[in-house]
Specification:
Layout lengths: L14 H8 L4 E6 L5 H14 L13 E6 L2 H15 L9 E4 L3 E6 L2 E3 L1 E3 L5 E6 L15 E4 L4 H9 L8 E5 L7 H8 L13 E5 L11 H9 L6 H4 L9 H9 L2
Parallel strand pairs: 1-9, 1-10, 2-7, 2-8, 8-9
Antiparallel strand pairs: 3-4, 4-5, 6-7
Length: 257
């Protein structure tokens, strides 16, 4: 990918993205601020997995398929595919695979076009939606699972069960907002109340909003984003952390003004 070769801010990876890509963990969480390129980094990882070549990691491709779970498959698939397309090298798609701005990637299968991406050697990345029935996750053994934005518990279990044979990698790229995530934090960090450690090892990479981590943006746009972010969401939307201000704390801050 050109993303591997170019300078940060000119199409290459930022320092925060590079830390994620260099991480050697089998299970990785990228918790990032809004608009710092977390999905861009996820898309690079998807291409590297499908092409079997990563600049910093060893890739396993025994099953010929990986899953990517996106927030809204029905309405957001074409937008996610647009981000994948921006990083796609030339001449890597299977002859039956096409991309369009309105439809995203589709593959001709038994006379019908199916929404997925297929590479030259037949390797596929299938997409699942955060609003789909959990049964949609229960159909294959896969090499890797990617999550764009916070998963639901039911989709989390179904998708990760597909890795039972391969023990393949999981990568989550998210800003920790939009739904309760206490359960996921316990999965990744363990339960501080009971003292139970996590059952698997996770490597966490946090990418806050800084000029260095968003070199594609102007300083003015970053200042404006910080200014219009509510104080109780700043920890998540700007710092990429698990927590903002709790609702009770939020109200007490509001009452002072």
């Amino acid at each position: 990918l050109q993303y591997e070769l170019l300078e940060a801010g000119k199409g290459g990876m930022s320092p925060g993205q590079e830390i994620l890509h260099r991480s050697q963990g089998n299970n990785r969480l990228c918790s990032a601020a809004i608009q710092v390129g977390k999905t861009h980094a996820l898309c690079a990882e998807i291409h590297w997995q499908a092409l079997g070549s990563h600049p910093f990691r060893t890739i396993g491709r025994t099953q010929g398929i990986s899953y990517c779970v996106i927030k809204d498959f029905d309405n957001g698939y074409h937008e996610f595919c647009g981000k994948l397309r921006a990083l796609q090298p030339p001449d890597v798609l299977h002859p039956s695979c096409e991309w369009s701005k309105l439809g995203g990637y589709t593959v001709l299968d038994k006379g019908h076009r199916r929404r997925c991406i297929m590479y030259k050697d037949g390797y596929r990345v299938e997409f699942k939606g955060g609003k789909q029935d959990a049964v949609a996750m229960e159909s294959a053994t896969v090499d890797a699972v990617f999550f764009d934005e916070p998963p639901k518990p039911v989709h989390w279990g179904g998708a990760r069960a597909r890795l039972s044979v391969t023990n393949g990698p999981t990568l989550i790229a998210m800003t920790p907002i939009g739904r309760p995530l206490g359960w996921l934090r316990k999965v990744i960090e363990g339960d501080p109340e009971t003292g139970d450690p996590p059952r698997e090892e996770w490597q966490q990479v946090v990418i806050p909003l800084t000029q260095a981590n968003a070199p594609h943006r102007t300083p003015e746009s970053i200042v404006a984003q910080v200014a219009r972010t509510s104080s109780w969401e700043r920890g998540q939307r700007i710092e990429g952390g698990w927590d903002g201000v709790t609702p009770g704390r939020r109200f007490s801050l509001e009452e002072r003004h």
